[in-house]
Amino acid sequence: MTKTAIITGGTVGIGYELSKLIAADGYDLILVARNEKTLKKVKKEIESSNKVKVDILSLDLADPKSPKKIFDFAKKTKAVVEVLVNNAGFGTNGKFDRMDLKEELQMVQVNVASLVELTHLFLQGMVERKNGKILNVASIAGFQPGPNMANYYATKAYVLSFSEAVYEDVKKDGVTVTALCPGPTKTEFFERAEITKSKLLDNPMAPIMEAKEVAEIGYDALKKGKSVVIAGALNKILAQSVRITPRFVTRKITKFFNQNG
């Protein structure tokens, strides 16, 4: 049976770059994203460059039914899922009391609940086969609270903590779970979050990285079975500095950089 990788949010940014890297290693792909037109475009591109099959699923992970639909599709097609990449996610910007509650709850569904369900659904088969790798895209935001992006930072803290814990749960079963923690990256994230004027985009302490570079770092860590990888030397320093900085100082600094304009 051909080895298969599932990638959510696999048509843009870090997910798109990971899709190309994983396909180049001979994995058939199941790509999940909302935009069917973009899915078809990426499918054609990857299949023309690699001897692999790419299946596409146009689903919104804000819909609680989507994770089970992905699992059922893999089961129906008898795909042996050796790699799961939980990359789909989004953020918002502004004081939490002024945010749209529906959108904030959708963020929790996409960033956390769908990730947890997909991990649980596919992890069981991996443990039974004593083989499998999961890459959960967290963020350096997961190391600290994030005023003006409170819910997003909280979801990424969950992903980081969850991934590390499950890594310990299954590491003796031949399965690894890796948390990829990027800093600011050139993707559609900032436009989606409506923070194109954020000071995060002009921070010499954390320069914006290319999505391709972040994906390469994440995929290398996945293959090596690392529990956590932080993309970028300066981001590693920032993540570690948070551990020794008083929380009230961290909150004020993060609030300053998260201001939009």
TrEMBL record:
A GO molecular function held by the record: oxidoreductase activity
Keyword vocabulary terms for this entry: Oxidoreductase
Its EC number(s): 1.-.-.-
GO CC annotations, alphabetized: membrane
Transmembrane segments: none
Highest taxon, organism lineage: Bacteria
The protein's enzyme class: oxidoreductase
Family: Belongs to the short-chain dehydrogenases/reductases (SDR) family.
Protein name in the entry: SDR family oxidoreductase
Organism: Leptospira interrogans
